[in-house]
């Protein structure tokens, strides 16, 4: 069982211009107190073929976290278009929202993002060089891909790879493709 459970993620200001900052309202619960901070990251996948084009847009530490329900708005600057190959700016990519504890990622929420020109004429006849200020970003927020990773939230209680509640860590991530029970 996870000590922290995401209960909801709402994408704010969607769709928007490619150059507009990202905003997510994140709700989560903590079921057992944690001594250290949890780390939230937002990563923009710049190319499906080469992860060197991925950009860490923002990383924030929250905590220490006591038992209870929490909600905050996570804001991140848009990706730097100069660090994305020209042919990868227009089209579909991925945005990853991750949460970690003590360097161990325990949940990842992935969203498909469609970048295209808002203007129909530009979509039909794209210019030779991308006009980034005319590109609209649309996060497909109704179908996030949620992956949960089992971690040991209380390492001092474990010496044999078992979690504090007695469950052994699972070798593969658990997937929950629906928005329910994030």
Automatic annotation (TrEMBL):
<dbReference type="Pfam" id="PF04729">
    <property type="entry name" value="ASF1_hist_chap"/>
</dbReference>
<feature type="region of interest" description="Disordered">
    <location>
        <begin position="150"/>
        <end position="182"/>
    </location>
</feature>
<dbReference type="GO" id="GO:0000785">
    <property type="term" value="C:chromatin"/>
</dbReference>
<dbReference type="InterPro" id="IPR036747">
    <property type="entry name" value="ASF1-like_sf"/>
</dbReference>
<protein>
    <recommendedName>
        <fullName>Histone chaperone ASF1A</fullName>
    </recommendedName>
</protein>
<dbReference type="GO" id="GO:0010091">
    <property type="term" value="P:trichome branching"/>
</dbReference>
<keyword id="KW-0804">Transcription</keyword>
<dbReference type="GO" id="GO:0051301">
    <property type="term" value="P:cell division"/>
</dbReference>
<dbReference type="GO" id="GO:0008361">
    <property type="term" value="P:regulation of cell size"/>
</dbReference>
<comment type="similarity">
    <text>Belongs to the ASF1 family.</text>
</comment>
<dbReference type="GO" id="GO:0000724">
    <property type="term" value="P:double-strand break repair via homologous recombination"/>
</dbReference>
<dbReference type="GO" id="GO:0031567">
    <property type="term" value="P:mitotic cell size control checkpoint signaling"/>
</dbReference>
<dbReference type="InterPro" id="IPR006818">
    <property type="entry name" value="ASF1-like"/>
</dbReference>
<keyword id="KW-0539">Nucleus</keyword>
<dbReference type="GO" id="GO:0006335">
    <property type="term" value="P:DNA replication-dependent chromatin assembly"/>
</dbReference>
<dbReference type="GO" id="GO:0042393">
    <property type="term" value="F:histone binding"/>
</dbReference>
<keyword id="KW-0805">Transcription regulation</keyword>
<keyword id="KW-0143">Chaperone</keyword>
<dbReference type="GO" id="GO:0005634">
    <property type="term" value="C:nucleus"/>
</dbReference>
């Amino acid at each position: 069982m996870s000590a922290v459970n995401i209960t909801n993620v709402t994408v704010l200001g969607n769709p928007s211009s490619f150059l507009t900052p990202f905003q997510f309202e994140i709700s989560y619960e903590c079921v057992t107190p944690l001594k250290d901070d949890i780390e939230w990251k937002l990563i923009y996948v710049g190319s499906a073929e080469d992860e060197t084009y991925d950009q860490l847009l923002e990383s924030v530490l929250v905590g220490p976290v006591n038992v209870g329900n929490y909600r905050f708005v996570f804001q991140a600057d848009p990706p730097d278009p100069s660090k994305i190959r020209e042919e990868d700016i227009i089209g579909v990519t991925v945005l990853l929202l991750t949460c970690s504890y003590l360097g161990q990622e325990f949940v990842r929420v992935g969203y498909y993002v469609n970048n295209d020109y808002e203007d129909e004429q530009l979509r039909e006849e794209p210019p030779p060089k991308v006009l980034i200020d005319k590109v609209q970003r649309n996060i497909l927020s109704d179908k996030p891909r949620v992956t949960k990773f089992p971690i040991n939230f209380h390492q001092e209680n474990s010496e044999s790879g078992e979690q504090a509640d007695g469950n052994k860590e699972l070798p593969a991530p658990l997937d929950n493709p629906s928005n329910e029970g994030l």
